[in-house]
Amino acid sequence: MPPMMEPVTMSTPTNLSSANEECLAERKWWCFLLSSIFTFLAGLFIILIFRAFAFLCSGPTAQTQQLQSNGKPKVSLISPPTAPAPLPANNAIAAPGANVPQFTKGGDRSRFTDQNGQQPELGWVTEAKDWAGELISGQSATGRILVVLVFLLSIASLIIYFIDASRTGPGNGIGDNVEKCQNWSENHTQQIDLALNIFFMVYFFIRFVAASDKLWFMLELYSFVDYFTIPPSFVSIYLDRTWIGLRFLRALRLMSIPDILQYLNVLKTSSSIRLAQLISIVISVWLTAAGIIHLLENSGDPFDFKPQHTISYWECVYFLIVTMSTVGYGDIYCHTMIGRAFIVLFILVGLAVFASCIPEIIDLIGSRSKYGGTFKSERRRHIVVCGHITYESVSHFLKDFLHEDREDVDVEVVFLHRKPPDLELEGLIKRHFTTVEFFQGSVMNPIDLQRVKVHDADACLVLANKYCQDPDAEDAANIMRVISIKNYSDDIRVIIQLMQYHNKAYLLNIPSWNWRRGDDVICVSELKLGFIAQSCLAPGFSTMMANLFAMRSYKTSPDMPSWQNYYQCGTGMEMYTENLSASFIGMTFAQASELCFIKLKLLLLAIEVGSEDGGATIVINPKGNHRIQSTTQGFFIAQSADEVKRALWYCKVCHEDVKDEKMIKKCKCKNLGAIFKKGVRVVQAVSNNPTRQTESGLNPNTHGNLTDGNLTRNPSMNLIPTHTPPEIPKRAKLRVGDHSGDPTESTHLIPPSSSSGGRRAARNGKSLTISSPSQPSAQTQRNQSSTSATATAANQPAKPFKDMHLAYEVKKLMPATRPGGDVTSGTTAHGSVPSAGFIDTKDFDFDKTEMKYDSTGMFHWCPARPVEECILDRNQAAMTVLNGHVVVCLFADPDSPLIGLRNLVMPLRASNFHYHELKHVVIVSNVEYLRREWKMLQNLPKISVLNGSPLSRADLRAVNINLCDMCVILSAKIPSSDDPTLADKEAILASLNIKAMTFDDTIGVIQGTNGTGLGSANTAAPPLVIQRRGSVYGSNVPLITELTNDANVQFLDQDDDDDPDTELYITQPFACGTAFAVSVLDSLMSTTYFNANALTLIRSLITGGATPELELILAEGAGLRGGYSTDETLRNRDRCRVGQISLYDGPLAQHGGGGKYSDLFVAALRQFGMLCIGVYRYRDTIGTEASSKRYVITNPPMEFILMPSDMIFVLMQFDPGHEYFKAERGSQPRGVNTSIGPGPEHGLTTATTNTGNQPPS
């Protein structure tokens, strides 16, 4: 030892160099290598000796146990002992005699105990093994920290090797090679490496203790790494020299990176784990082989070990990668024999690793979708859109969602779909890269929901495939998506598209589904058929509403026809919401609407009022008893959101004298209280000013009572819409009695029965002879006496849906139809029904009342009847007087998916129509299909079925299609997936077939009576006669055709000039209201997101009054249930509805001859409470190209000039009027004997008398 220390004590450089040469004259590398080999062999020898000793010691014991087992029976878990075992301490019931081991808590560990409560000795070795195994397993926090720490320190040791290896090579001088003499106390890298190796040695012993098989542990890869790196560190202290040796083996620790990343929960997918494994294997083999070449080339050939060629470590790294890739440039190569021998062997192994791993790595990297990242929200709101994601659906959605007319949309759209986007969709996403991102994944996977930050999203939208083959399967898939989303985040707002109405009930089963929090459903079939139903009442209304909730931009051009300029100006209108300013407080809706239209150039449709339950209710065109309150929200029709701000900024003090509406900006008034008081005073002064009432001759809140061509309160006076050209007008001749307009006699909404047997006879189709009106019955007098009480109840303030649940539950116990025979005891009914707060038993007579409405009072109702009673054959239909009805031409196979015809009929059966105003519905279709639909139609009155084909002209003539108010062409057949353009072939053929038909110049004549039963005993009301001239040409028959493919609209009109690439809303059939496609409903998704109340308003307008309470009832699957008329349900009739009025005659005809639209708007609103929202005008009225087609003009400007042939879209309030009684309750001219046809539920009258006039049922 002392002689070896003498060279190191030299202080001068010359002496130091000489000492190094003397020290390195004798190489000691074999000492370092032998230390590693002896350590391995010693450990292996100790383990083998221990195993041999254990085998020898356990031999006699095993033989003794074998002898004992032969002498007496062995005790097992299933053999019963001599004494019964006690009950276990944990009160578990064990088998009799079972030797059940028990667990007892000892510290933090559980130990086995036998049945006597004694713990068997496990030994300190076993405890140490368990402790070590838990420490290195990575399952506990301590274990994970230790595993990560070992990896980090291994990398630190590898870095130290890189530092030392970088000093070895050409240009570093003699003695500064793989082996060098240096005092250990002065070698800082070796000191650090020794400290790390001491830690690795401790970790080695922990692993050794935890190993179940010690022998195999000694042969593990990481054990060899420790053998060849730890002992040389201690040898270098003794020899005062260092050998770079095999420290490069620490690079093999890189292969534990995948395990470390899994412990840290960084790698979660199998592809990412496999990719990490392959990369770590390639890098480890690469760096380790480079270290071997570096050691061999710098050491030289044996046995002299004088290197002729020195090379740096990083050159070896370069040489190995060139060799592994089979390129071999030849600029660097091995000079030593042992180096060349290693390369030969390495090529066999390394090339195999390189050839197998690199392609797999490339495949994994290539298979990693570029849409597989994580969404990073940058302080902006975002929404997640999933479901049916295609180029068409995304383009329609983004076109409306990111429209320029919306306010600043600071919302990012994130699409999540399991398939990568195609080239078209990818290009669309790139064009909107600032606001749109796409991620590949599944909504059903919580990991993917976390990637797109669903819990932070503003809403989640689920799109449906409207062209799917199986609508129910599509709805089921989307509902499952909602369940997954709600399961991940129950407070996320979800807006979903569904195809079928009956599937809405399944959403109610989701516990976290709450429509009050913004969750909403856009049912395609409900809205589609609802739009078509409203077009039956007001042709063209579907086009108007579709344009209102879609964001469109228009540009008028002098080169376009005038009708297109007017129409496109209307398409630019949208529906917006905004709070009304304080200047509106105290006004009635009519006053506020007039102010908005005249002053602000805005159309106010509805307001949101508070309800008793703390919620809000949307009221459309309410009557005068509704006053504008503070912060009332209004629903407007305008061109942009900026225009609607005028309603918020309007100040009576600052803007009263402003003529230009664009100058109405936000003022600087601070004394809002003074403005409010002044506004209230002005409103009161206006409402109390008798001058305004005398100017019009009418109270602004009272409907007029005009006769001889003027509009009256009698609902039978409603003007009949015209659908024919001006040269063939449909005239309405009205003769009304003197008492028809008396508002005090028009509130009897519960007509008592004159004879229960008579009603049953009418339902059974028996002939009834109507008595002369000159002899009023006693029942009529009772009707008069009960009028005032009912009128008083009708004027009470409404409490919508109060006690609805209790009322419905009690009504379910009531009989749907009265039992046969006469009910003689009225007190029985009174006593059997408990007072539930919704029935006034003093004024309610069950014996004299029938169910006419459903349990909510929103729709007309009749007792269920089988479909056979409503089926007509062709002869019966031909003998029936059908006029002013709705013909539904439905293409369906017996097994076609149900389209939900109830959604088409229910708006036509809304209770805000009187019974006689209901249009009869005749369905021409396959009766086997209708049997499946009938369950939802059996409680709706005035429905008939003709088992025929919509393509049969004989069937169409039998139902008097030339006299119908509207012909609806639908298809329930599954569209072909081969050619989407053929999906509408039946509908197009039926439309062209009807337009090619010709008819006789027939006139449909209906004679009825005012039927009030309220006239005096000596006064007979004259009959009501309506003459209607039918269409001579099929092209004049009012049609609306449902299309699946937008491009097929070009085939409906052969005389239009539309290009095939023209957007649907610009085409002539859509502008005229004769075509409707489901694609227009795509805009409702974004409309509902930005304004949750917009969908409620649209649904109220088109469904006839469907409410969440009614949907809960329908979700039970039993259909509509009848209910007795109460004050509460009758008040539900008092709601607005859509209608059309003509300017050809009537009280508003004075505005038709060149009048301004603003004058008509004000007159209709003040005199009749009707809110004008648009014009339905003939496309060409002059010149040689005159056409019978009309087009829609939404909210025309104030200066718009009207024509006599114009039809006006209006929102009219409910008029109680005179309830129209059926034939047995009314009066009829003497000598007319009318035979009721298949039944009054059909609403048909069969021509069995010789008189020319026949009353409707």
From TrEMBL:
- The highest taxon in the source lineage is Eukaryota
Task: Please give the start and end residues of each transmembrane region.
Answer: 29-50, 145-163, 194-210, 275-296, 311-329, 341-362
The record describes its membrane topology as: Multi-pass membrane protein
Report the GO molecular function annotations: large conductance calcium-activated potassium channel activity; metal ion binding
What Gene3D superfamilies does this protein's entry cite? 1.10.287.70, NAD(P)-binding Rossmann-like Domain, Voltage-gated potassium channels. Chain C
What are the start and end residues of every segment in region (Disordered)?
688-801, 1222-1257
Identify the main location: membrane
Tell me a GO cellular component: postsynaptic membrane
Localisation per UniProt entry: Cell membrane
Entry-linked SUPFAM superfamilies = NAD(P)-binding Rossmann-fold domains, Voltage-gated potassium channels
Q: Where is the composition biased (Polar residues)?
A: 688-721, 766-776, 1245-1257
Q: Which UniProt keywords apply?
A: Calcium, Cell membrane, Ion channel, Ion transport, Magnesium, Membrane, Metal-binding, Phosphoprotein, Potassium, Potassium channel, Potassium transport, Transmembrane, Transmembrane helix, Transport, Voltage-gated channel
- Assigned protein family: Belongs to the potassium channel family. Calcium-activated (TC 1.A.1.3) subfamily. Slo sub-subfamily.
Q: Which PANTHER family match?
A: CALCIUM-ACTIVATED POTASSIUM CHANNEL ALPHA CHAIN (PTHR10027), CALCIUM-ACTIVATED POTASSIUM CHANNEL SUBUNIT ALPHA-1-RELATED (PTHR10027:SF33)
- Mind telling me what this protein is named? BK channel
Q: Which organism is it from?
A: Tetranychus urticae (Two-spotted spider mite)
Gene that encodes the chain: 107364487
